Structure formats: C-alpha cells, structure tokens
C-alpha cells in the first residue's frame, strides 16, 4: 500500500538493501477492498496536469506529452464530481498510462487510476474513460459491493455518475448519445443471455461462476436505468440530495442490494409503490418502465447508416463534428448487406482504416472482415499484434471466426492468436480462447 501516490515512486524507500534486495514500505490509511490494490513496475516518468493530478507513463517524451494534453481537463471533472457527490476523499487522483497490452479501458485503483494508452486520441475524448474511473472514487471505491452478485452497485452507480460528469463537462447531447449507446448494448446483452436469463438480473446468483465469463453490460446499463428511473420519479434535485446522503452514509463500507433498497425506502417513503423495486433488482430482462433514450444525434447516425443500402455515403458536412463514438455507431449500424466496394469507397474518402482512434479503426476493420475485404487483413494483423484491449480483441476475433464464415479466416485468426498470445493479458487470452471454443 502506498503512503501518498505523488511520492511513491521516488521517496518511499524506507528499508535498507540486504542481499541485493530493497525493502519498501507503503502505508495506505484509508480502507480499501483487496481488488483495488495494484502494483505498477516500470521506468516511469510523470507530468503535472492539475493540483492533485499527475500523469505517469513510460519515460517516452511523446507519450507523456500527449497524455498530459489529453487529460488536461481532469481537475474540472474532479470539481464537478465533488459538486455532485461530495468531497473527493482520496487526496490524489493520479493517472498511470500502461502499455498497450492492458486488457481494459481503465481500472479505478484509488489514488492512481490505470489506463490503456488507446484512450489517448489527441482530441480529449479519452476524458470519458477518465470520467468513469473518477466516478468510481465515490461509487465503487467509497461504497463497494459486498460480493460480485451485487456488482451493479459498483458499476450501475458509476455509469450514472460518469454520465452526470460528462453532461456537466461535455454537454447534454453527448451524455444522451452515451445513454443511447448504452441502451443498445443492454438490449444486445439481454438477447445474448436469452438462454441464461439469471444473468440479466441486477442481483444474480453466481455460485460456481467465474465473473470474467459472464461480464456484460447488464450491471452497468440496467443499474444505470434503475437509478435514472428513480431520478425521473422523484426529480433530479431530490435524487441528487439522496445520492449525497447515500454516499456519506455508507462511505468506506461494503454493502449489498438489500442495504441499498432499505436505505432508499427509508429516505424516499412510498417509492416502492411507484417503482417495482423487486422486479428491477431481482427480475429478468428490462422492465417496461425503463427509459428508452431519444437522442437526435443517435437517430441521425442510424438513419445515415441505413441509407448506405442506396449507396449513399455521409457527406463531409454531416461528419464534421463526429468523434470516435459517432463513427463507431455509424459503422456498427451499417446493414449486413453492404458490399465490399462500398466499404472500400468509405475508407478511401475518410481513411478510417488509418484512424489513430482505435474505436474507429476497429469498428471499420470489423466491417471489412465481415464483407471479406482481404485488402485490410494486414492492418487487422498489425492491430491484433499491437493492442491487447479486450474491447478490440473481441470484435475482431469474432468477425474472423464467426461473421465472415470463411475457413481461411479461421486459420488466419488461429495463426494471429498463436503469434500474439504472449503479449495478451491472461484474462484477454481466456476471452479469445472462449471465442474460438464457441465458433470453431
Ligand atoms: Zn467501472
């Protein structure tokens, strides 16, 4: 455990070397659950980006400079979080940019969040992952779920808190687009679990189950939906007040769903008569009073994607303000019938396969594989060998072994995995193996 993250790299050597060893001691005075305890070892350097934030990364000047630029607005987000959820209790909020094999977008280790380098895109949109990890400082790190069966208490609250921070910092339109993307993800995962509806419950039975095997959007997005449902019932000011009280009451504790529900009922009398809390927390699927988002940006993009069946491509003025998220949505919604020639035309106009933004590049490559555009296979190979983030491995390997329906693609996928495997995190290796197991 570390005394203070701003010192831990340089001044915390308290022991004396003996037999070629150095003993280091760190002290963390605030209680944290064991899953939030992490080590980072490497030749690291840092840049200061705010009064309580430094960005750490391997000592490569260009990486550090672009990371510092990308996360320049972090202090604004911390202040927004404090306004919404109460004091930031962890003193420091430092960021560590890891090598590209890191399998997640981010990990919310208190005082020093771990991040994939793929969030550095040069246009400050990477701030969204930071907003999520920052939100965990209140929901997840301050109040933790007692067991993984109540995981939604971590991620549902954090998704809600993240979107409130995004709304405050980047505007309502962006927050609503995120809700739209989340809603689609929730519906897809509920469909994916149609043979195991237990996993569509907020509070579910995970006896004998490896949580990594059943990871989904359900705790994030259905949890978010329940909190939004309550907010819409009692109004935002009352809900904000409730949230602050909830956080202040249970901070530095681990709780379960029942504790939350009891607290909710005690503080908002009669809420159980307006919202079926048992159905929401113990029922399967998506309750009918969930909020189906109505984002105009979302709709415009989906209808543009549908128009591609007539050979229509979005015009420069239509995509002028698009960021990675918009492109990803557009590409994901392209009809299955789209032809390889259209994919090639789209790329020659907008250079998507060369995008520095992995969300865009991977969504594009996924479409290219599904259409059998062999021209992009060297780019697919390069991508799968340079990053290990599961968000990219999953769609690309799935496209190769399932969507394309081509035997050569399966052989290609196997060879790639054989050559890249050692560079992937063990959890990511397991995910790829599971995809192979299911489709080969
Ligand atoms: Zn999270």
UniProtKB/TrEMBL annotation:
It is an enzyme of class 3 (hydrolase). Its main location: cytoplasm. Zn(2+) binds at residues 132, 136, 155. Belongs to the peptidase M1 family. This is Leucine aminopeptidase. Binds 1 zinc ion per subunit. SUPFAM superfamilies: ARM repeat, Metalloproteases ('zincins'), catalytic domain. The active site is at 133 (proton acceptor), 220 (proton donor). One of its GO terms (molecular function) is zinc ion binding. Pfam families: Leuk-A4-hydro_C, Peptidase_M1. InterPro entries: ARM-type_fold, M1_LTA-4_hydro/amino_C_sf, M1_LTA4H, Peptidase_M1, Peptidase_M1_C, Peptidase_M1_dom, Peptidase_M4/M1_CTD_sf. It comes from Medicago truncatula. Keywords: Cytoplasm, Hydrolase, Metal-binding, Metalloprotease, Protease, Zinc. It is found in: Cytoplasm. Residues 296-436 form the Peptidase M1 leukotriene A4 hydrolase/aminopeptidase C-terminal domain. One of its GO terms (biological process) is proteolysis. It catalyses: an epoxide + H2O = an ethanediol. Aminopeptidase that preferentially cleaves di- and tripeptides. Also has low epoxide hydrolase activity (in vitro). Can hydrolyze the epoxide leukotriene LTA(4) but it forms preferentially 5,6-dihydroxy-7,9,11,14-eicosatetraenoic acid rather than the cytokine leukotriene B(4) as the product compared to the homologous mammalian enzyme (in vitro). Its EC number is 3.3.2.10. Its cofactor is Zn(2+). It comes from the Eukaryota. GO terms for cellular component: cytoplasm.
């Amino acid at each position: 455990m570390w005394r203070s993250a701003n010192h831990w790299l340089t001044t915390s050597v308290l022991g004396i070397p003996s037999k070629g060893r150095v003993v280091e001691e760190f002290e963390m005075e605030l209680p944290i659950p064991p899953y939030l305890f992490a080590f980072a070892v490497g030749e690291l350097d840092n840049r200061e980006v705010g009064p309580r934030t430094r960005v750490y990364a391997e000592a490569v000047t260009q990486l550090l400079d672009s990371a510092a630029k990308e996360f320049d607005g972090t202090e604004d987000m911390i202040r927004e979080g404090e306004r919404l959820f109460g004091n930031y209790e962890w003193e420091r909020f430092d960021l560590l940019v890891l090598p590209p094999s890191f399998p997640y977008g981010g990990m919310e280790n208190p005082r020093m969040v771990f991040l994939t380098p793929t969030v550095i895109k040069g246009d400050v949109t990477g701030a969204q992952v930071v907003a999520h990890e920052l939100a965990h400082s209140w929901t997840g790190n301050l109040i933790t779920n007692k067991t993984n069966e109540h995981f939604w208490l971590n991620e549902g609250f954090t998704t809600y808190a993240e979107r409130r921070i995004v709304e405050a910092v980047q505007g309502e339109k962006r927050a609503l687009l995120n809700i739209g993307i989340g809603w689609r993800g929730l519906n897809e995962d509920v469909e994916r679990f149609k043979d195991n509806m237990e996993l569509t419950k907020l509070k579910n039975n995970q006896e004998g189950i490896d949580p990594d095997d059943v990871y989904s959007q359900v705790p994030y997005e259905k949890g978010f939906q329940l909190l939004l449902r309550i907010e819409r019932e009692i109004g935002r000011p009352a809900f904000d007040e409730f949230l602050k009280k909830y956080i202040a009451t249970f901070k530095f504790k681990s709780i379960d769903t029942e504790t939350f529900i009891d607290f909710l009922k005690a503080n908002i009398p009669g809420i159980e008569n307006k919202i079926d809390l048992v159905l929401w927390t113990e029922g399967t699927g998506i309750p009918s009073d969930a909020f189906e988002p109505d984002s105009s940006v979302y709709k415009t993009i989906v209808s543009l994607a549908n128009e591609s069946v007539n050979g229509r491509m979005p015009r420069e003025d239509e995509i002028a303000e698009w960021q990675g998220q918009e492109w990803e949505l557009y590409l994901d919604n392209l009809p299955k019938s789209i032809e390889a020639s259209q994919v090639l035309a789209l790329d020659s106009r907008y250079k998507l396969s060369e995008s520095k933004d992995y969300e865009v590049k991977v969504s594009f490559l996924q479409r290219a594989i599904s259409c059998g555009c062999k021209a992009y296979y060297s780019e697919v190979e390069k991508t799968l060998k340079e990053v290990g983030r599961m968000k990219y491995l999953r769609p690309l390997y799935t496209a190769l072994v399932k969507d394309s329906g081509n035997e050569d693609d399966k052989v290609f996928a196997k060879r790639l995995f054989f050559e890249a495997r050692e560079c992937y995190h063990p959890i990511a290796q397991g995910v790829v193996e599971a995809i192979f197991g299911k489709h080969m």
